[in-house]
Amino acid sequence: MNVDWSIISGFLPQLIAGARVTLYITVVGLAGGMLIGALVGLMRAYGGHLINGIAFVYVEVIRGTPIVVQVMFLYFALPVLASIRIDPMTTAILAIMINAGAYIAEIVRGAVLSISRGLTEAGLSIGLPRWKVVVHIVGPLAFRRLIPPLGNQCIVSLKDTSLFIVIGVSELTRTGQEIMASNFRAVEIWTAVAVFYLIMTGTLTMILRMIEKRMRIL
Amino acid sequence: MSAIIQFHNVSKHFGSLKVIDEVDLEVHRGEVVVLVGPSGSGKSTLLRCINGLEMISGGDLIVDQLSVKGGNKVLREIRQEAGMVFQQFNLFPQMTALENVAFGQRQVRHVGRTEAKRHARELLEKVGLADKEAHYPHELSGGQQQRVAIARSLAIKPKVMLFDEPTSALDPELKQEVLNVMRTLADEHMTMVVVTHEMSFAKQVGTRLIFMEHGKIAVDGKPADVIDSPPNDRMRDFLRHV
After folding, report:
1. Which H or E element spans position B7?
2. Residue A150 within any structural domain of the chain
3. Tens digits of per-residue pLDDT, B24-67?
4. Which residues does A199 contact at the CB level (< 8 Å), separation at least 6?
5. What's the CATH number for B3-241?
6. Is A164 inside any structural domain?
7. ipTM score here?
8. CA-to-CA distance for A148 and A80, rounded, in angstroms?
9. pLDDT of residue A11
10. Which of B60, B62, B54 lies closest to B17, judged by CA?
């Protein structure tokens, strides 16, 4: 067996560039996903039949199909269906947004519904409009409860970016693949790629733990 | 005395279950009405209809000249005039005792921060918890939490106070401190509607006792009279068990 770890150093700039792309897609995608998730989650928790129904269909379609299929659909089927052509990077960000949005919607819904009905009634009873009850009472309490599952989703989404290799986005996994293709150093390169992912997910975990520590779950 | 709460032929259904059955009732200013009855008799539901936590299915219910059927805006006005105290206290857990009491005034009555705090301190003192203002609900005993909850309701300056089994979740020795606060309110001529099983409170503080059964008002009279000589067997039987 011929393993030479020193060759990694030569490819570090490339790998770092790939990791930056991965991080960029994750951060922008998740920011959008959280917005979608909050909105859809609240639609599910508070909406009437119609609004709840629309939100339900979105969540079911996304949760019920593999993310690779969603990416393929966005990149290859959408241009045919609606003559909308989007570049790979935009597709990647959009895919993370839409995919994470559905999962986060369920996280938000669960957190909101876990807050005792009595607190909502107490808020309404002092004459608050419902939206103020949501913003000032249920929201802050639900937020604390959604941090652990939200952290989980962030890590899942970060790793999901690796499958954008199929549409040629030069994120970390694709970068690893390209280096591999030139030197066939499978052990060294894939180990390095795995470590890069671990560093990113590890940092995420630490940030989440810090937030959790600062906020008591009530 | 003028009526501040008027039930006109009020009914409430949960699906096919009729919980309130064509009730007529007037509560006048300054009255302390004690609602008793077996579980499932509709007493809590009757109370919750008054501030619109339950919507009535039939008839009309007027609170301080506003109908509970008047839509969301009117309902909010009614809720500001009819404070509610719950069995489970329902204090906002992310806020201190003082913040719990000050919060409503700031949001609903648009009182300034310093004024809201000053008033909140006054109310905490009134319920005997001046030294607990910085405590969070989980740091307080049940009796203390319930007293903060009463202060929170009073902070909105309601004309009526509704109590939904305020001492049922409390240990016997903690019940008294809550009942004492309620007694003080009654002495100040606050209009109160109280769902409770505390017969001694009903007798000492209540000005009127209503016994409910199957969603109807079965007995309505002076507490001392109806407790000492129940007008029907059902109530006699009920009183033996509380």
Report:
1. strand B3-14
2. yes
3. 999 999 999 999 999 889 999 999 999 999 999 999 999 999 99
4. none
5. 3.40.50.300
6. yes
7. 0.92
8. 40
9. 92
10. B54
Residue B24 Rama label (left phi>0; alpha psi -120 to 50; beta): beta
Using CB atoms within 10 A of its CB, is residue A69 exposed (0-12), middle (13-18) or buried (19+)?
A: exposed
**Is residue B153 predicted with pLDDT exceeding 70?**
yes
Test A119 with B84 for CB contact under 8 angstroms: no
Question: What pLDDT does B22 receive?
Answer: 94
- Helices first, then strands: H and E counts in chain B: 9, 10
Averaged confidence pLDDT in chain A = 93
Say yes or no to pLDDT of B230 above 80.
yes
Domains in chain A, number? 1
Are A99 and B74 in contact, with CB atoms under 8 Å apart? Answer: no
Q: In chain A, which residues touch B (CB < 8 A)?
A: 116, 118-119, 121-129, 132, 136-137, 140-141, 218
Q: The tokens of B39 are what?
A: 């579980």
**B180 residue type, one letter:** N
pLDDT at A2 over 90: no
Distance of alpha carbon A129 from alpha carbon A123, whole angstroms: 8
Task: Write the burial class of residue A198 (CB in 10 Å: 0-12 exposed, 13-18 middle, 19+ buried).
Answer: exposed
Place of tokens 């690893």: A176
**Which structural domain, as residue segments, surrounds residue A199?**
12-214
H helix intervals, A64-160: 67-72, 78-82, 88-114, 117-125, 130-132, 139-160
Sheet holding B17-28, edge to edge: B17-28, B3-14, B58-63, B66-67
- Hey, what are A157's tokens? 């989404």
Look at residue B129 in the predicted model and tell me its pLDDT: 96
CB pairs under 8 A between A and B: 62
The two tokens of residue B225 are 């009279």
How would you label A124-151 residue by residue, b for 16+ Cβ within 10 Å and e otherwise? bbbbbbeebbbebbbbbbbbbbbbebbb
**Does B80 contact A126 at a Cβ distance shorter than 8 Å?**
yes
Q: What is the pLDDT of residue A217?
A: 64
Task: Pick B39 or A107 by higher pLDDT.
Answer: A107
Q: How far is A137 from chain B (nearest CA, A)?
A: 7
- Distant-in-sequence, close-in-space partners of B195: CB < 8 Å, separation ≥ 6: B35, B36, B43, B44, B47, B163, B164, B165
- Considering only CB atoms, which chain A residues are within 8 Å of B152? 122, 126
Q: What's the pLDDT score for residue B60?
A: 96
**CATH number for the domain that contains residue A18:** 1.10.3720.10
Domain map (residue ranges) of chain B:
3-241
- Amino acid occupying residue A90: T
Chain B neighbors of A122, CB-CB under 8 A: 84, 86, 90-92, 149, 152
